[in-house]
Specification:
The chain is α+β, with helices and mostly antiparallel strands. It is built from ten helices and eleven strands.
Length: 323
Amino acid sequence: MSAPSRAGAAGVTHSREQATAFAPASVGNVAIGFDILGFSIEAIGDRASVRRSPRAAVSIEAIEGASVELPREAERNTAGRALIAMREALNLPFGFELTLTKGIPLSSGLGGSAASAVAAVVAANALLPEPQPLLQLLRFAMHGEAVASGSMHVDNIAPSLYGGLVLTVGIDHPRVKQIPVPGSIRAVIVHPHMFLSTRQARAILKGSVQMADFVWQTANLAGFISGCYTSDLDMLRASFEDVVIEPQRAALIPGFADVRQGALDAGAIGCSISGAGPTVFAWSQEAEAEAVCAAMTQAFARHGLQSDPWITSMQPTGARVVD
């Protein structure tokens, strides 16, 4: 999909010297769409304030809201690296000064690195003489995501930027498609208070997949997308199963099996790991969302983990300038 740029809708003028943007958190993979599916979480996100600088470089002035110290060198910071990619690609004669405010827990599986990169490029885009379309901003933000995870993937960047449930095909020439979600569906997000690095969670994955699992996973992905387009909740329920990635990562999250089963017993359509984890998410109909949320948080508690829950609809609202 070539979604229209929101540059004009965000109130951009070509004479701005500073802008602040908000980028929502996101759930990557969505169980059956490893590295290609994701959806945004409007309840939390990161903010980036970017100011034009006469010095032709990117500098990070401050990072606020982070529970641990994050790199202040632009090359080693996801948001900073995304701005460097923007400057280099557009051959800009000016630089950027960045202040980042983290609203997403670190190493949570909620796309914090992606949201920082997205917020930075959306804010910087408001300062350009010729604002860039979303697809170009996606490419800039991908360079930032590579800093955090060691590879370019877009299942968090795309939903944070575009909003809603998003399918992205390709890396060198990405194609982005927003997928409709039945209006009665709610996402239940539960973040346990533990640390799990994205690099660690990717490092344990096997490099090959059995043919039977490949067919099963492909069928589930096709069924899931079909169910979204046709509002077929039975198809969604039958397809909401990750037979490739989730079994390898489940042991990294204490109590995951109980959390998942608790969600399903409470009426969830499906439940899986958000991105690399440790956050777990479920889809349910609105009427069951509170019960599903309670079952998931109680299951984590039984395994000694406190958690933060959110319940959200999946509106197609992505990153935007907020000042």
